[in-house]
Design a protein that fits this description.
Length: about 180
């Protein structure tokens, strides 16, 4: 069982090109859960869509388009993450367009809510809130996640926060090992 965060670096649309120019090399992020049966499921928030999941047969991950970080988790933490992501899918949590657009305004510091009190999510916001809600309180990532505002963090900033404490992985390692 494993948890990986995928960071998309391709810019195949106008919006992604704009995000890349304004916010750095990464334009989107997703949570990838691998269960005990080696089945992979990705969860994320996509613009103009509710929070969703993607099954492995629909994945478009490769090393040319994505970078991956492995988040060390226990079986209990992974179970909580999977259940929380599924709850966001079932509740059709909408996309947080407003905060995504406003996230690049310097010195903006809106009130940060937890996963279950956030009415909408954008991709990197969802990753931060899911990890905060589901990792054990003594997990090594908590001090790093505590200093960011989920409503203003870009995928590139999230990568910078996680990279010092999460090992990089290749697409092959994420999807086949």
């Amino acid at each position: 069982m494993a948890l990986h965060i995928a960071f998309e670096k391709s810019a195949d649309s106008f919006i992604k090109k704009l995000v890349k120019v304004l916010a750095g090399p990464y334009v989107h992020t997703e949570i990838i859960i691998t269960n005990a049966a080696k089945i992979h499921t990705a969860y994320s928030a996509y613009m103009a869509c509710s929070f969703s999941k993607t099954q492995q047969e629909e994945f478009c991950f490769n090393d040319d388009t994505h970078d991956f970080l492995c988040v060390p988790v226990s079986a209990e933490e992974l179970d909580r993450i999977a259940k929380s992501c599924e709850a966001c899918v079932r509740s059709k949590k909408p996309y947080n367009t407003q905060d995504m657009v406003l996230s690049q305004i310097p010195l903006r510091n809106p009130t940060d809510k937890d996963l279950f009190h956030s009415p909408a999510l954008f991709c990197s916001q969802a990753v931060v809130l899911v990890l905060r809600a589901c990792l054990n309180i003594d997990h090594d990532l908590h001090p790093h996640l505590a200093v960011v505002n989920s409503r203003t963090i870009s995928p590139s900033n999230l990568h910078a926060v996680l990279k010092p404490v999460c090992a990089p992985r290749s697409a092959y390692e994420v999807l086949t090992l």
